[in-house]
Amino acid sequence: MRSFCSLIACFALFPFSSWSQQTDSEWIEYLQKHTETTDSEGLPTQEFLDLLQQYSENKIPLNSCSISELEEFPLLSGLQSRSLMDARNKLGRFQNWQDVLRTPQIGFEDVKMLRNFFTLEDQKIYLTSNNHDIRNISGKLYSGVGLKLNNLPNYTDYHGSNYRGFTRLNLKSQKLYQINLGIEKDAGERLFHRNKIEFITANFSLTPKSGFIKQVVVGDYFLKSGQNLVFGLPFAMGISSNPEFLHRGGSLLKPSSGFNESSFYRGIATEIKIHSISGALGFSSTRRDSYINSENMLSIAASGLHRTSSEVARKHNATHRNYNGIIQWNHSLGNIGLSFQQSGLKSREASLRGSNYSLFWNANFDSGIFFGELAVHNQGRSFNGGVLVFITKNSSLSFFARHLSSLSRNNFTSPLSALSSGSETGFLVGYKFKIHNRWNISTYMDCYKRPVAFIPDQKWNSDFQIQAEFQNAKNVSGYFRYRNRVRSSDSSSIENKSPVAYTTVKHSIRIHIEIDLSENSLFRSRIECSGMEPSQTSYLWYQEFSLPIYKAKHHLRFRLAWFKAKSYDNRIYAFESTPPLIFSIPAYYGHGNRFYLMIKSSWTKKLSTWIKYSEWVYLDRNWVEVNKKPLKTIKSPEVQVVIKYTL
């Protein structure tokens, strides 16, 4: 406790000198406030971060976008989307970001986030003799590599080299068509496997200007309906500091260009709209990694890693086919629809077939939104839904209930595998309000049950969180967060196989401060304390700054963090700013420090580079070198380089 108090004192007495800037990865900081937790549950997935990266590259015109585009954006709730649309209709257009801030349900942190993905400028349309000329295109090319500079003793020997490399190309023509192409290899993998590149993702999407066909996608794609119980998306489920995010909306079909090797469909899909009826049809056939699980059932290996002999042996050893469909009736008061998925997974050892069907609805009222989805599949039913209510123009109440059977928790294998630990029943109550555009306070209580293996009596788990965000009249902002988590689990002895039920309680407190002194510079400081019973306490304290150098053509960001955690179970997560398409959410455990230095350089209007050097320094590891000398201090450095060229 004394060490914690001393850290608090250091935090309070630190001479803050600060800066702020909207960089390409600044939206990562918003995720820290709203999706980052002190354990692995709730952390955003790689494909979710890839999706946000695409939004940051192609900003949405806030003064001309539709309600469906607002609802589709994953960091806006349904209530916030409606509030923005109502405010824009009253004003005619948003003249500046202060107009956006005056919108009910939109706080200053929301505005900081929106500036990374939306623009108040009207979308430019360049008229030519032929507006559909395929030569009238624009695009972006990214290429990057991440390399660990040493291999620590006792690390597994992988088949491939220890760097991660990728290249992604995006071409588009004034919303008429779009081409995405990407290749990637993970650290430890070979670039070529059986004379083929380790992983390739590609698609071509066409958006006709007229007619009932809204979009056609050939290649890799996502489908979306209701609360995503049938198809799933990277952000299908998850609890954040803003409980309104549990409501989903938006378009039915979206091209995929991320590097996740399992969470996508590969084939052809089309989205149509005839008057008030919209729908989508898709067919997918692709090779997946598969294995026989502990229940002697065929399952998809979702990691997509092919580093060891066992991982390489199961690479693309099964065929996965899907037939998908959505039909939806739209009205000014909401929508209602049906969705289905027929799936088949076949390998040499086994084969499985399954199906999912669902009914989903969204009802919009002046005082709130009523939404939900009921899904039926091979071995059960699932429900996911709730209500969002305007209490006042600056406050909202959320209620969310769910019963998720085992088959609906892993969306892309949902008809194909059943894990008893995946079932869940629970409810969430959340409240959010804004005070004078200076304070945002949000809280939620989530209670749920999950089956505990070998123990018939299910235990209630709970999560409670309260977060207060503030900003003064000038340049200081920050937030305070308290979280309490109660988990029930079991431990069984291998010798007598007698299970023992136990409960873990985890508390965490976070204080985060930011100070802005100029438009292009920023300073941050955070302290976090996490405690588990019995008597396990973790600490994380970091200081970070960013500032422009040499006529603002280069931008430097530096962070130094100190951490101490007795066990991996009591680890603490913290987002890091990274080069595009390389996302870092390191887990701090053990005892030591970590620092990184990143420089972004804009050489021309079209060419930019990012170089990041990071290093872990562990003070409590006991590895032994080849010469049998003990290592009292372990260092793990890494370099990441990304090049971006705008076509």
UniProtKB/TrEMBL annotation:
Tagged with keyword Signal: yes
Signal peptide: 1-20
Keywords from the named record: Signal
The protein's name: Helix-hairpin-helix domain-containing protein
Upper taxonomic lineage: Bacteria, Pseudomonadati, Bacteroidota, Flavobacteriia, Flavobacteriales
